Each structure stands twice: as C-alpha cells, then as structure tokens.
Automatic annotation (TrEMBL):
Residues 150-379 form the Sigma-54 factor interaction domain. This is DNA-binding transcriptional regulator NtrC. It comes from the Bacteria. Residues 8-125 form the Response regulatory domain. It is found in: Cytoplasm.
C-alpha cells in the first residue's frame, strides 16, 4: 500500500477538464493521480506495478465501458482493500444503494464541491479505513423544509428552534452558528419556508463550494468585459433575490474584502456589479450560517465586525449532537423511516443493542453523520431490525466504549426492544418502569405512585401482580 507521502489516486474518467480539476484538488491532500479513460484501461492499469500502489479509486459513472456497478465489483475483486468512490450526476437514491452494495465506499454527486471531494478522499485513506462507515452519505436524502422535521427535545435545541421560528416570521437578517452537520442549512431552509418571503425568490450559496475567483461575480454580478474572461454579463445572486432571501452557507469562508462589500450592499440596499457604471436598488433578506464562532473570527481580524453586526439581528446556535444524546433514539427512528421510503430499501426498526452503540459515539459529524451511518447500515442489513452487528466499523471504533453506551441506555431504566428488534411484552416494560421509579424516588412509595399517576393501592396491587419486591 502506498505511504502517506506517495498516495496514489486512480481516476477513471474520460472528461479531460474534470480530470484536471480532480487531479488538482487531490494534490491538496498529497495524492498523485493516474487517469484511465475507460473500464478496460482501468483494469489493465490496476494490474500494473504502478497500479499496485493505488490507494483510492474514483470512478465517473458515465465512463465508457461496462455498467458502473459491474466495474465496481470487478475492481473490488481485483483489489478488495482499495476504497472505490463513485462520481455521478444522478441524484437517485436507488443508484446510491446499488453502488454501495456493489462495493463503493462513497458516492459523490456532480457538480461535486471541492471540500466534499477532499472530505471523501480524507475518509478513504488507509489511516482512516476503519472509519469508512462514518463517511458523509447524507446527500442521498432530500432535505425537508419544515420546522417539524427538526427532530429533538433537548432544551438547547428546542430553544434554538423557537428563536429561529420567531425570527423567521420577522423581516431581519439572521445568523446560525454550529458545528458541521448540526443542521444549519436545513434550519435556514425552514426559516425561509416559514417567512413572509416564502414564495419570493431564494438562492442558497455554499461559499466553500465556489472557487474564490468566481464567488464575487456569483454574488454581485459583473458586466461584459469587466475583467479578462468576462465574455458576457452575469446577474448576481443579490440582484436575482430582490424581494426574496439569500442564504449564505459557510459565510465564515468568505474573503474579507467581499465581506466588507457585502456589508456595504446590505447597509445601502444597492448592489453594484463589477464593472457597472451604476448600482441597482435591491431588497434582500440575508440568512447566513457559519461553522466557526463569528465573534472569535472578528477578534482574530478575519471577519468583518460590521457584517457580523448586520447579520446578528437574530443569532441562533445549534448544539452538537454529543450535547443532545437523548435525542438519538428519536432521530434514529425518524431517519430510518425516511430511509425506508427510498427505492431499493426497506423500513428497518432498531434494537436496543444498536441504539446503545449509537448513543456511545461522540458524533463529530453530528446529525448528518448519524444519518449517513444509518443509511449505510440500512443498505447492507437484510434483517428487519438493525442491531449492534449492523454497525461493525462503529463497534470497532468504540471498542470497550460500546459497553458504556449499553450501560447508559440501561441507566435510562427501560429496554423497549429485544436483540432481534421486536418489542418486549408490555408487562415486562411496565415492571421495569415501576422498578425505575422505586429506585429513582428511593422507595418513597407515595411519591412513586404520584409520579406514575396511579393510587398507592393500585401501585401495591401491581407490585404483587408483577412479582416486584418493594425494596427493588
């Protein structure tokens, strides 16, 4: 296997422009790229001495030759340990399922954002091979636009949603902060859908997905001939969103000069395209999201304090999943319900052993990562229920920590499911609830009865019927 200093990427692609772009991006992660123009060439190259050093394979679905899934199986048969990533223009969940069942490690939708490609390459490297189950597969699932789809009851999360819902009904700008994968873009979409401008134009721009050389024209527009290569006039997103909403994801990645220009535009309400002799009056509401704390960036001098103040009419902070682990069961069942509706998949339940494992993990990728892990497990699980064995890489990562998750779940007092995914009998669940209450209230039976909403006589009768010792 290639060392980290000489990692080799095999790109199977017949588009020269895309090959050059991918090669340049891969070089950022220390990869040298071999390009094969068709399936036969890829198989031949993989068998060569140089091909034996390949660390990752990136396959364009439309490369000439065999069906992409057939080629994936062939490549995995030749080199089982080498991760295969598939690049496609299709958004079909069924194709994602087929590709992963054929052996693909990840599935990228064109046009792929540079950071998304780099993220996939980082996850596919040998040093991270044990973590491949935790790669971001969430792009296969459509995002909901409803506040009701934001699942969770943790107080910090509900506070954030309430604040966002109130702000959505107003007219001011808003800033949402939170770690990657906490659901910032989904929240901003829900805010727009609940706002007075819901039926007005909206544009979502991911700053990190746009080349730095293009972001200025994309936001502000330019006139024909404004700079070398400006062969035609371009209307910017700010002008296109007149009367509506502009959503700027990862605004912390915007260059300082453009931050200042954006602040000036928001303040004056006039956008002036590059090279234009005059500006245009616009009425645009800006929703922005940031992975980093904007206040910290302002202190570091890398973010405009004026833009920060303008966007902070409402500021919402989404908590990371590790701070709302009690929401994992509800999120898991919500995601499994949605995943089960995708072509080629069935609806899975989840056993307590599976939930225990999910609750034990810290989820650095947050809710998006949880969804991705469940998607992969659902693809490969043929049983009705997901159990701990459905997440082998997660169990490997946690090691003994998996027991902590089981203990934590038992600490909640009630196991609802058996290991085969079926519900336990109601009598057993009821007995566990009563034991939990007796232990929690330290044997104070009057308090136990009050908290359970039953009379003392009823409680004692149940103790007898269920064979529970008062001192349990």
């Amino acid at each position: 296997m290639a060392t980290s200093e000489s990692r080799l990427l095999m790109l199977i692609d017949d588009e020269p422009a895309q090959s050059r772009l991918v090669s340049a991006l891969a070089a950022r992660e220390g990869y040298r790229t071999l390009v094969a123009g068709d399936c036969d060439g890829a198989v031949e190259m993989l068998a060569s001495p140089e091909g034996m050093q390949v660390s990752v394979i990136l396959l364009d679905q439309w490369v000439p030759g065999d069906d992409a899934c057939t080629l994936i199986r062939q490549l995995k048969a030749l080199r089982p340990a080498v991760p295969v990533l598939m690049l496609t223009a299709s958004t079909s969940p069924l194709l994602a399922v087929e590709a992963m069942r054929a052996g693909a490690t990840d599935y990228l939708i064109k046009p792929v954002a540079p950071e998304r490609l780099l993220q996939a390459l980082r996850g596919a490297t040998p040093r991270a091979s044990a973590r491949h189950e935790l790669q971001p597969l969430a792009e296969k699932m459509p995002a909901s636009l409803d506040f009701d789809a934001m699942v969770g009851t943790a107080p910090p999360f509900r506070t954030a949603l309430a604040k966002a819902a109130t702000a959505a009904r107003g007219h001011g700008h808003a800033l949402v902060e939170g770690e990657t994968g906490t659901g910032k873009e989904m929240l901003l979409r829900a805010m727009h859908a609940s706002s007075p401008r819901a039926k007005a134009p909206v544009r979502i721009v991911n700053i990190s997905a746009i080349p730095a050389s293009s972001i200025e024209s994309l936001l502000f527009g330019h006139e024909q001939g404004a700079f070398p290569g400006a062969f035609e006039k371009q209307i910017g997103a700010l002008q296109n969103c007149d009367g509506g909403t502009l959503v700027l994801d990862e605004i912390d990645r915007l260059e300082m000069t453009l931050q200042e220009r954006l602040a000036k535009t928001i303040t004056s309400g006039i956008v002036r395209p590059t090279g234009a002799a005059h500006g245009f009056k616009v009425d645009v509401r800006v929703f922005a999201a940031s992975d980093a704390k904007i206040d910290a960036l302002v202190e570091q001098g890398t973010f405009s304090d004026e833009l920060r103040d303008l966007l902070s009419a409402t500021r919402v902070e989404l908590p990371p999943l590790r701070e709302r682990t009690a929401d994992i069961p509800a999120l898991t069942r919500y995601f499994l319900s949605n995943i089960g509706k995708q072509p080629g998949l069935i609806h899975h339940s989840i056993a307590d052993s599976g939930l225990a494992l999910l609750e034990a993990y810290d989820w650095p990728g947050n809710v998006r990562q949880l969804q991705a892990v469940l998607f992969r497990a659902a693809v490969f699980c043929e049983e009705e229920s997901l159990t701990a064995t459905s997440f082998p890489q997660l169990a490997e990562l946690l090691g003994d920590m998996g027991d902590r998750g089981e203990s934590r779940l038992r600490g909640l007092g009630v196991m609802l499911y058996t290991d085969d995914g079926n519900l336990r009998p109601l009598e057993e669940i009821e007995a566990d609830v009563i034991r939990l209450a007796i232990g929690h209230y330290r044997g104070r039976m009057t308090e136990v009865a009050r908290r359970l909403g039953i009379g003392r006589s009823t409680l004692y009768r149940k103790l007898g019927d269920l064979g529970i010792d008062n001192a349990a």
